[in-house]
Amino acid sequence: MLPGSIQITGEALSGAEIKDICDSLKENSVRLLSVRGCQLSDRDFGRVCRGVAESVSLAQLNLNLGVVSTIGRTKQLADALKANRSLQTLFLHGSPLLDAGLVNLNGALSTHPSLVSLDLGDCMLGDEAVRLICGMLPPDGAKSGLKELTLSANPAVSTQGWARLAIAVAHSSQLRVLNLDYNPLGDHIAGMLAVAVASSRTLEVLDLEGTGLTNQSAQVFLDMVENYPTSLRVLVLAENDISPELQQQISDLLSEGEEEEDKDGEARGRSGPPREKPAWVPHSNSSSSQMVLMTSGLGESFLAETEM
Fold it and tell me: Do residues 76 and 5 both lie within one domain?
């Protein structure tokens, strides 16, 4: 039987429910476990972590909205991740990790052999955490690294921290999706990110929704996509002080680039593998993944590319 999913949201979990979760993890019958916003005791959290450590089927773990609520729990989760080898996607959005919590998790996250998607949005992170996260974006393919990173709503990160991240993104050999929405970035930091995007060979999706940008930033991105080759396919600029005309110009250019790639692929007879699509795309009524600049909000990422 194929592994299934356990998804529970916002409930106080009983001991019996925890036992069922742990048994399923140990039996390798769970591919997706979500206890988003649930309340459980420290003892029960430790039991779940031990189940995660033993599971070889678990690919996605959602602990969003405060489940990892203490430093002690970050240590328990780190121990579980050190033993686990199957996890591909980890959600910790809305957890009060602070830099100290990420210090505890860093060793397990940075050396995990399968982890490709990490959500640390709204985790009260600062510059030290960003420094550690940059280590998860290796500059060459010799070391595994993240393909999708979410750092939404971490306003304590300084200009220096974002500059460090921009450098890591520019040289990352694997990152394809970067979500920075609802951080107070402003035009100066956006300019750094534009340089990083221009340098990156892999970044396909950049979410800058609600980051305090103006037409100045949009013009920089427009010049970039108009004059330089880029892997970028989706740029989200909603909820910024940017004119719809500039947003549409950028969208049109990204669409043209995708159409040219499709024609080139057809001319070559598709001799190579098709280009992979991003694991996440913003919500949109349009059928084109490039026509998304006016979208609002992020959906939680789903399982990454490969089926187990």
Answer: yes
